Amino acid sequence: MPEGRESNSRHTSRRSRTLMKMERDRLLADSKPSSPELLEAINQNGLVIFLLANLFTGLINLTIPTIYLSDSAAMAILVPYLLVLCVFAWTFKDRRLVKL
Question: 88: which DSSP letter?
Fold first, then answer.
């Protein structure tokens, strides 16, 4: 292979690798988080949500004899419990409430 072609081939190969890297970086920058947005929202304020969930659990256990509940009654408590926590997490998804 003549000298000019080999040098040109290396230059083209280097250029195509650079273009591929730039395209990969662009795609990664445009990509969404790998986990669902609700989980990202919960993760944003995990400590506050954990403490809130513990307070709700204590309130429920102090007011309702949960050990004697039927399955449907337990679900009737769990669904709003989780709904409140998820709405709270979603409301504050763009703001960190506690900075450690």
Answer: H
